[in-house]
Structure formats: C-alpha cells, structure tokens
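Thread: quick sanity check before group meeting

JM: Hey all, I'm pulling together slides for Thursday and realized we never actually wrote out the predicted structure for the chain we discussed last week. Dropping the sequence here so it's in one place. If anyone has concerns about the input, flag it before I start.
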Amino acid sequence: MPADVPDAQVYADWLQERKDNNQSDFTPLYLQRVLVISCVFRGADGLKVHSFVDRDDASEGKVIRPSSTRWKSTRRSW
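JM (edit): ok, ran it. Output follows.
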C-alpha cells in the first residue's frame, strides 16, 4: 500500500479484509497499546481513583510495568 494513503483508509481496508475472511473486527492483542490503567481504592476517607497514563506516547512499558522500587505490593486479607 502506498505511503500516502490516509490511516483511516488503511484501517477501513483492514476491517473489510477481516470481514471478508469471516473474522471479527476486534484488533488482535499484538496490535493493541495500553494507554491507561486505572485503579479504584476504597479507604476510610472514601473512594479514590488513580490512573497510570501514557502521556508522551512512548512510555507504554512504564504504564504496564511500574518500577518495583516505587510500587510495593502488600498482601491483605479482607
């Protein structure tokens, strides 16, 4: 496909090709990116939502794998 074809057209052609092959329009995992991971925390002071966001379009790995020195898991029994 020529480089000057708009992204929207490439995507539309890809969707049509998948439909023609009786495949879903769900993008395979290897073509997906993680943009945001959000967590809801409940504590004595109420609910809080925290999100890890890929703002610079280059830190997907940091969103998925936070530094182990920064985030420590704590096992709790509720």
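AS: nice. The CA atoms of residues 44 and 56 lie 34 Å apart. The chain has a mean pLDDT of 77.
JM: adding both to the slides.
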